[in-house]
Design brief:
With 99 residues, the chain is mainly beta. It has one domain. Helices cover 13% and strands 41% of the residues.
Amino acid sequence: MGKEFEIKGMDELLGKLKDLENNPQMLLVGSTFDIEKEVACDHCGHKQTVSLPVMVERVEGKKGYGPGGSITVTCSNPECRKTFEVTWDNVVFDIELTE
């Protein structure tokens, strides 16, 4: 018939699954989400909405934490069209899971 074998690390895997069952928001760690923010061009002052990519670095309870970052944006004003940097500090956000 078949051979029996033991799967090593099964207890650890079951422990992780149990943690996820109790804290499903942990699945968000490592994910990246876009947050829309209105910014003004450094050159002409034109305001526009940009998407900032924010990564979930860690989760504590119902709070998510992400690192700061920066992106280069091109001004949407047809008379300007210059690039400028948009930077942001560490991000803290509420997590609400719904079915």
